[in-house]
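Memo to structure team: turn this sequence into structure tokens by end of day. - J.P.
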Amino acid sequence: MSTATTPKGSVRMIDLPQVHDPRGDLTFVEGGNHLPFDIARVYYLYNVPVDSERGGHAHRDLEQVVFALSGSFRMKIDDGNTKSEYWLRDPRKGLYISRMVWREMDAFSQGAVCMVLASHRYDEADYFRDYESFLTHARA
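Reply from structure team:
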């Protein structure tokens, strides 16, 4: 599936394959196969204080899948019409967030590690950092 066919405002859980082994489990991800986009950037958050909030923005074009590789945290999602929450705590399950979705993250557990797979390289012009401006564009 290409980014052009992904509806704006869509959010869903993505389950990745798991290979069981007595020495430990292995999970892998392939852009364009397990994800609805090719991976252009990977970044991760760690050493996040448990009372911190992250996110607080939306993207015009970028799509992401967010994983809790270790520990847990909450994703608060808003597509301009509907608000929802997801708790991420399983490293095999990622939250797909399409373009034009406001996201906030909080309630990080001690030692949580969040990994994000993104469809585009960093571009500040792609961000909505003002919630009211986001709402105006999302509802248009």
